[in-house]
Amino acid sequence: xxxxxxxxxxxxxxxxxxxxxxxxxxxxxxxxxxxxxxxxxxxxxxxxxxxxxxxxxxxxxxxxxxxxxxxxxxxxxxxxxxxxxxxxxxxxxxxxxxxxxxxxxxxxxxxxxxxxxxxxxxxxxxx
Amino acid sequence: xxxxxxxxxxxxxxxxxxxxxxxxxxxxxxxxxxxxxxxxxxxxxxxxxxxxxxxxxxxxxxxxxxxxxxxxxxxxxxxxxxxxxxxxxxxxxxxxxxxxxxxxxxxxxxxxxxxxxxxxxxxxxxxxxxxxxxxxxxxxxxxxxxxxxxxxxxxxxxxxxxxxxxxxxxxxxxxxxxxxxxxxxxxxxxxxxxxxxxxxxxxxxxxxxxxxxxxxxxxxxxxxxxxxxxxxxxxxxxxxxxxxxxxxxxxxxxxxxxxxxxxxxxxxxxxxxxxxxxxxxxxxxxxxxxxxxxxxxxxxxxxxxxxxxxxxxxxxxxxxxxxxxxxxxxxxxxxxxxxxxxxxxxxxxxxxxxxxxxxxxxxxxxxxxxxxxxxxxxxxxxxxxxxxxxxxxxxxxxxxxxxxxxxxxxxxxxxxxxxxxxxxxxxxxxxxxxxxxxxxxxxxxxxxxxxxxxxxxxxxxxxxxxxxxxxxxxxxxxxxxxxxxxxxxxxxxxxxxxxxxxxxxxxxxxxxxxxxxxxxxxxxxxxxxxxxxxxxxxxxxxxxxxxxxxxxxxxxxxxxxxxxxxxxxxxxxxxxxxxxxxxxxxxxxxxxxxxxxxxxxxxxxxxxxxxxxxxxxxxxxxxxxxxxxxxxxxxxxxxxxxxxxxxxxxxxxxxxxxxxxxxxxxxxxxxxxxxxxxxxxxxxxxxxxxxxxxxxxxxxxxxxxxxxxxxxxxxxxxxxxxxxxxxxxxxxxxxxxxx
Lengths: 127, 739
Hints:
Chain A: It is a multi-pass membrane protein. The structure holds two protein chains of two kinds. Chain A is mostly helical.
């Protein structure tokens, strides 16, 4: 089971990494979603004991480890918040610049690449 | 106001140190970081007394001088007087750091104070921050003293790893001669020598003369530069256990005496002459530490006191001359003796102290120096006479050019505040030459710490032809000749200066700083080129670290397949489904397809959680996935059609790059996660405790209790994140307005 969970998490991570490298911002966001799923699967997989759900422990018998579950809950909720924010950002970018492609956006963000250079050389302290 | 406050603080410090010294000192040792064996250990012993009295005593006079000097300096540059706020706190902190360094007896503590002095000096040297030269000088001083200071820390850790303590007295008691001691001693010596501006790391000191004069007078006579020899004196019993270290000290010391002296002979700017003189004079002290023995240890301590008094007087007088005339070059000055007789006399006394003339403390310091050198064979005897002759010549030239001859630039009236400290220091120098016993007692105490055995010094005038007197006479005669042979002297000095500029360490320093900046700029440009390289900049080092961790840990039995029982047979196909959906999400270009694949991944995992006995997680996952799917659909509904079919602008070789990177990182993640999941601890201790306590927290569901109670603060943070995200989303959708 350990092997299976590790394999599933690895597929999620690999696909997430692939998507992160893409030029479309929508796919980048998808990649982040997959990587956070990978994290949650790993947390659940790291449960130290297996048994009944940790509800009403007084009934007896082995229980599943409750701590990773609590951590996974936090991760899930925060992951959702992050994704919603990212999607809203992408939406805003598309509304403002009319594209969600990084190559096209790069030309949009840098109106004066020369000015930057000048600032850096003015603060030159080395010799 | 601030200046006089600092001055008063230094005076109080001086009195406290004096009382502590008279009472015989004492030690304090408090735990600092027990897990690392670090203690706040201070001892007010002989060495601490000497340097604390020097730092506070010279501090009082320099600070008093500075109150007037700084005002004039700021007024001349049309700068607001409020800038004093950037000056006095650093000066006061510097004095405090110096006292701390003098009293610290823990190597890590020594390192901390050592760096604190460097940081203060950075801000003080760079006080005139509008001038580029001042900024560069400050940076050079900082880098050249702080980078070798890391060697001090490395040496301390090396000694700790062998002897299990950072405490210098304990190390002195236990350290054995050997390779470790030699290496650690060399590391510590490098840090100390760089701080004391010894060749080849001396070049920061002449540049640091960009600082206002009180800074030069203080940092470069009684404090910053003295910190190096202070550390040498403190750890000297350790250094003395290695012949290699002692030889290095001798060679570096004598080279510094020669290089500093010869360069001082030819300099034109007042403070430059004094800076090279400082290099040369601390070379004497380092040489003395290179010779082992009671006489040498005591002489080194005596030398430090006398030199600090004389050199701060000379710096203050140089500042007074520049303030009065507006000139800072010997070639444009001269004949000031008739117009400023008091200053000329006081400066003359200070110069005579350096030249070791009788009736000044300098005579005794050279007498002790000669006596120690004589014990160490003919080579050192000759070298010491030559060194004294060089000193006699350059300081003689300095004083004669400044105060004798025709008047070159007429001086304005000098404020007494600028004059009195020089006179006081000159009086101290004369007092030391008439009644040397207070300084002798001080130096004996300090020498006893450096030598780790009692030291007795008996400086006195003897009217006979004993060896030390003959050596002194020879030094004066040679120095007089050098003073007379102006042409030869100037040519030699210029030759050495040119050679130093061509081949010197300063060039290497500049090249390495520029090279480092270039590398850093290139890395920065590459890292911020686009999102892809930013991601790579995180992922590649993370992957490399994980790989290194795997290379360093044993792999045998580190991976287990794990049992499959009961509901796990249902989990397996679900995981396969999740995997397929993931690959679909990665491959598809249809936006709707991406959303559906993501939903399949999410709901599949929710089912897995349900089967793994985690109903709470499963329920929340279903809820979250439902919302996310809806949010995604809503967001994509507003975006144009499909994703572009092909990633354009690619070269052919790069087509396989992304899948390759993804495969490698997936495999890496697989190894890491599998290894991590394969090694569970035996007992779930925290969880068992939480399960036991859940009923007491009025809950049946342990997970709920953990979220709401045991880890309630985390949950509060999580809610805050949700709130911030919600505000962000609302603002973004509302075109920059929240409502």
